[in-house]
Amino acid sequence: xxxxxxxxxxxxxxxxxxxxxxxxxxxxxxxxxxxxxxxxxxxxxxxxxxxxxxxxxxxxxxxxxxxxxxxxxxxxxxxxxxxxxxxxxxxxxxxxxxxxxxxxxxxxxxxxxxxxxxxxxxxxxxxxxxxxxxxxxxxxxxxxxxxxxxxxxxxxxxxxxxxxxxxxxxxxxxxxxxxxxxxxxxxxxxxxxxxxxxxxxxxxxxxxxxxxxxxxxxxxxxxxxxxxxxxxxxxxxxxxxxxxxxxxxxxxxxxxxxxxxxxxxxxxxxxxxxxxxxxxxxxxxxxxxxxx
Length: 292
Ligand code: NAD
Prior knowledge:
Layout: E1 2-6, H1 12-21, E2 25-29, H2 33-41, E3 45-46, H3 50-53, E4 59-62, H4 67-78, E5 87-90, H5 96-108, E6 112-115, E7 118-119, H6 121-127, E8 130-135, H7 138-151, E9 152-159, H8 163-191, H9 196-203, H10 211-214, H11 238-255, H12 260-272
Parallel strand pairs: 1-2, 1-4, 2-3, 4-5, 5-6, 8-9
Antiparallel strand pairs: 7-8
Helix pairs in contact: 1-6, 4-5, 8-11, 8-12, 11-12
The chain binds nicotinamide-adenine-dinucleotide.
The site of nicotinamide-adenine-dinucleotide has 27 residues, from α4, β7, α6 and α11.
């Protein structure tokens, strides 16, 4: 099976490498030369352009920053240059509406399409332990599943086109709300005289227990491997969370869902996402909850 992989950034570079290590023939492309050079050094074929990369491919995987990159590439370079019946998998995190549009464009051009965003960060990408949320037909899902199983550990077929992105956006909205709630709890606890460790000992085994407490605890100390215990090095960067909450806001508005806390999380992260903070782990938002 020939795989074209486009977008060799923080995530895509590892995902492509895992597929290459599993023995697939990979043709790669990125607009950044250093990214393609690293892929070439790992034995992958590098194409001279996006349209060149998809020629003769059975599967095309894209891992781009945002929806406009996906739609532009599908329209201008990829769909018309691929053989009929090629399976297009977009693993970028993009708006639900953009994912549906991308799938429609691919299908109108005679191809198969899946939206397959991931969770698990760069560590998950490197270790092949990502979670894939996959929207599209059963036929496309069955064809792609062996590839997802190389790049990930948990693979969920969420339903029709766009539902993979829906699952991703909903999950990250809940995560942001949870993280802000946990940050406020540690801050209020401190102001009431509770040490971080004491509160951690209670919350990690009580009803408020969550990933935001036990894995990504927003205060340094109780969880040595958490970003907070390592100068808030991500993890999952604030800039990416702010981007995903922008997608959540668009989905809340387009569906008229009463989701005040989701919107509040969007505003909190948009404000916090300054030049200084965008590269910090998103649990660093606790700084806005502390006095002075
Ligand atoms: P990134 O910016 O590091 O990588 C994107 C790559 O796409 C870049 O190398 C860029 O040069 C390339 N690119 C852009 N337009 C292109 C084009 N037309 N042709 C070829 N290459 C092109 O981003 P990332 O961190 O790898 O994230 C990729 C996607 O995955 C994003 O949508 C992000 O929201 C999502 N995501 C990221 C993480 C994470 O922890 N980084 C976790 C889950 C999901």
